[in-house]
Design a protein that fits this description.
mainly alpha; 6 helices; 3 strands; 54% helix; 9% strand; elongated
Length: 136
Amino acid sequence: KVNTKHRYIMRNNSQNEQSPAFQFYAGDWISDPSRMRMTLEEQGAYILLYCHCWRGFQIPFDFEIMSKMCNCTEEKIKKLFPKFEHLFKQYKDKHGITYLVSIQAEAERKEQATNRAKRSAAGKKGAEARWKSDDV
């Protein structure tokens, strides 16, 4: 039987390289319509869950665990979560356990991967040009 209370998987392998940080654009956060509709308490809970999703790629959709991640009561997170639930997508694993993934964190992760690939290609192209010019 799968332990549903403590199953928190990090997908950290060579294809899912884990970055320790994400870009945070103050202007985007301040002007975001979703954020403007949240109370300060809801914003705090959202950003904490976002950070946990960033580190672990996913979090269990379990109010007990989520309340601990946000340092609040289970009743409080049950009240707060519906205000920002649309910013997460849910999926079930092969054991039927439901997880949450931050939509924004996944978009940021894709952007970072694209930027890494571009920098790598540019570096390889530069090295190739340098070594070819040294042969002349």
